[in-house]
Amino acid sequence: MWGGENADEIRILYGGSVNVSNVAEFIKETQIDGALVGGASLKAADFVEIVRQTEKIKQQS
User: Fold this and answer.
1) How far is C-alpha 27 from the geometric centre of its chain's CA atoms?
2) pTM for the full predicted model
3) What is the number of domains present in the chain?
């Protein structure tokens, strides 16, 4: 509707149930720029793993 140039400037954050098991599939999506982590952030080990997976995927792209 507003053109590709404007769309490229909008950041999309996925805000659903992000967890260790599914974060990779969201981060790999080219139209998703990040994720809002809710309940999974309450478990330190899970949150650290989400961050590690995200960092690894971003370095590969």
Assistant:
1) 4
2) 0.78
3) 1
What are the backbone angles phi and psi of residue 31, rounded to the nearest 5°? Answer: -90, 0
Q: What is the dihedral of CA 52, 19, 16, 30, to 10 degrees?
A: 40
Phi/psi of residue 13, each to 5°? -110, 130
Mean pLDDT by 10 residues, the chain (61 residues): 83 88 92 89 95 93 79
Residue 24 makes CB contacts below 8 A (sequence gap 6+) with 53, 57
